[in-house]
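Hi V.,

Quick status before I head out on leave. The structure for the redesign project is tokenized and pasted below; the design run finished overnight.
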């Protein structure tokens, strides 16, 4: 059985004080949750303070990005080791916004995945197609390239500490959500890719999250799908009430 995972990506939102307030509300609202793994990813500036508020609560801290070097002349970057030191247990890698806005390619993303895993952190690898790619029937080709590129040279053992997040770019922040069936189709395809790259056991144990305008009113249907193991939540993770409801999803 794959334990469900709900991750909240706060993106470029919340001052330190606001992040502390939201974290405190989540600690109070999710203190009794044990069946679902919970992750929140504040901005870099709030990581240390949020880590202190989380304490022993069943909430794990993640960073939204990292640089694939431990140290050196890399102005403005943070290494997985530094993020671990700040209290992080996971890193989001290859989010579509970084692929699009900052031109991150699969080679760089793969390097980030490797360094994150080497540092003992959970890697959350994001993949997904644009609307144009879906309409041109290129979705499977795009997903195949991103999965193979992002997982290049990894071992089956390393996959135990990696989560894949499928996020159709056309559904991120747009209010549009893939139908339950569309999401399941993509997740099933991704699991098949993982099996082809590794083995059936690795594919069956790999958790695959859905990301793209996940909200309290659509999470139940998504989580009822066989190959959807959780969600990478954007906007709805910025409101304690909404995020708590998503974490406490009810399978239809």
């Amino acid at each position: 059985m794959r334990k469900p995972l709900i991750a909240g990506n706060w993106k470029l939102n919340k001052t330190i004080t606001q992040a502390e307030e939201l974290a405190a509300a989540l600690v109070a609202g999710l203190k009794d949750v044990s069946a679902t793994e919970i992750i929140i990813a504040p901005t870099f500036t709030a990581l240390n303070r949020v880590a202190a508020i989380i304490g022993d609560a069943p909430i794990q801290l993640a960073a939204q990005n990292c640089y694939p070097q431990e140290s050196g002349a890399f102005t403005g970057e943070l290494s997985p080791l530094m993020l671990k030191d700040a209290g992080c247990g996971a890193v989001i890698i290859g989010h579509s916004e970084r692929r699009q806005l900052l031109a991150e390619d699969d080679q760089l993303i793969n390097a980030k995945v490797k360094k994150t895993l080497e540092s003992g952190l959970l890697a959350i690898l994001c993949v997904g197609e644009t609307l144009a790619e879906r309409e041109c029937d290129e979705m499977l080709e795009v997903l195949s390239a991103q999965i193979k590129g992002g997982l290049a040279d990894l071992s089956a053992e390393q996959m135990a500490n990696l989560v894949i997040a499928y996020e159709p770019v056309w559904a991120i922040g747009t209010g549009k959500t893939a139908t339950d069936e569309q999401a399941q189709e993509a997740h099933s395809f991704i699991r098949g890719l993982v099996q082809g790259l590794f083995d059936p056991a690795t594919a069956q144990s790999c958790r695959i999250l859905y990301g793209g305008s996940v909200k309290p009113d659509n999470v139940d249907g998504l989580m009822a799908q066989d190959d959807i193991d959780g969600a990478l939540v954007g906007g709805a993770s910025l409101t304690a009430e909404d995020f708590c409801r998503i974490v406490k999803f009810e399978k239809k």
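Above is the designed sequence. Residues 5-247 form a domain with the TIM Barrel fold (CATH 3.20.20.70).

G. will cover questions while I'm gone.

Best,
W.
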